[in-house]
Write a structure and sequence with these properties.
With 334 residues, this protein is of the alpha/beta class. The protein folds into two domains: 3-227, Spore Coat Polysaccharide Biosynthesis Protein SpsA, Chain A (Alpha-Beta Complex), CATH 3.90.550; 247-326, no CATH class. The chain is 40% helix and 16% strand. It has helices at residues 36-49, 77-82, 91-94, 97-104, 127-134, 156-159, 178-200, 210-220, 249-254, 269-284, 289-295, 298-308, 310-326; strands at 26-31, 53-58, 71-75, 111-115, 120-122, 141-148, 167-177, 225-227, 247-248, 260-262, 265-266. Strands 3-2-1-4-7-6-8 form a seven-stranded mixed β-sheet. The radius of gyration is 21 Å and the shape is globular.
Length: 334
């Protein structure tokens, strides 16, 4: 049988655990590494929710330690190929939905939360967030910043050949029903066949990422898709939840709880790396000298020194000075 014709495998006994209950959602933490911050996040999620917390771990390059998690689903290109899915050099980064297909093949739950390690739910009890959505079982897909998009979004063109209406979302925290996952797997397999035929014919075509694929396919197929903020309560803002503007984990820990989801929340070297990525993009966007100095002010330098040490902060300050010197001058007031 062709992999594209195979249904999603049923839960295997090896994947079931005492903590696995099909009547409760499971939390999947999508990761490719092991560190103390991640261990603390897993412990906090399990303690506050009482739910099973599984790692869905990219182990292409290295083994990922289980730590305090309930269990682990190993993600490798071979596993995805066995599921009948296209795999490219950046599949693990591009296609977070692949982790759902792998997890659903070994776990019995009906609903799956998929969370990235740099997400933090800034509440005294993060379990409150999950309990709030426990009453929304009619929804197949929950995500942040879920809406219809246009050609101004970078991923739009990758999905436009397959749909007249293209939708977008952000994928660091989502919840999907099993029936939605099964539908998405079927559609990924269909697109895999089309994509491979295009490649064989010499046609270059971009493979859709998780955000555009899931939002578009489920919305157009009339699955029940809703933004996490669409329930009379704001769980995130544009300032708290995005892609480039990192929040230092140490600073968030000192900030009063506000009931919001934050992303990306980073510590140590990843925080430094994200700041540099932001600085590079600001240079590409031609931010002015004053805008750069405002964005990377004293609080940012304090965070970097606390997270990575004084030497890293000094190095970034030197790099910022170079960026400012080559940035456009601010327009005169008036």
């Amino acid at each position: 049988m062709n992999p594209a014709d195979q249904p999603l495998p049923g839960p295997s006994q090896a994947g079931l655990s005492e903590a696995s209950d099909p009547n409760k959602p499971v939390i999947l933490l999508r990761t490719d590494t092991t560190n103390q911050a991640q261990h603390h996040l897993v412990e906090a999620l399990h303690r506050s929710t009482g739910l099973a917390v599984w790692l869905v771990a990219d182990e292409t390059a290295r083994f990922v330690e289980l730590g305090p998690a309930t269990g682990k689903v190993s993600l490798t290109p071979q596993r995805f190929q066995e599921l009948g899915l296209f795999t490219g050099p950046d599949t693990m980064w591009r296609c977070g939905d692949y982790a759902l297909y792998a997890a659903a093949s070994v776990l019995s739950e009906t609903y799956f939360w998929l969370i990235e390690p740099d997400v933090r739910i800034h509440m005294p009890d993060p379990g409150e967030f999950f309990a709030f959505f426990a009453g929304q079982q009619h929804v197949d897909f929950l995500a942040c910043r879920l809406w219809e998009t246009n050609s101004g979004w970078s991923w739009y063109s990758s999905m436009r050949p397959h749909a007249d209406r293209v939708f977008s979302c952000l994928f660091p925290i989502t919840r999907l029903s099993r029936r939605a996952i099964e539908y998405l797997l079927m559609r990924r397999r269909v697109l895999t066949t089309l994509h491979q035929a295009c490649l064989a014919g010499g046609e270059a075509r971009e493979w859709p990422n998780d955000e555009v694929f899931c939002a578009t396919e489920l919305s157009n197929a009339n699955y029940r898709c809703m933004d996490i903020n669409a329930f009379g309560r704001s769980f995130y803002t544009r300032e708290s939840f995005g892609f480039l503007d990192a929040v230092a984990l140490s600073r968030l820990a000192q900030t009063p709880h506000d009931g919001l989801i934050y992303h990306p929340v980073l510590s140590g070297e990843p925080f430094d790396r994200k700041l540099r990525q932001r600085l590079y993009h600001d240079g590409q966007d031609k931010l002015s000298q004053g805008q750069l100095l405002m964005r990377y002010g004293a609080s940012v330098m304090e965070d970097l020194a606390r997270e990575c040490g004084e030497a890293a902060a000094r190095q970034f300050a030197d790099d910022l000075a170079k960026a400012v010197s080559s940035a456009p001058a601010d327009a005169p007031p008036g």
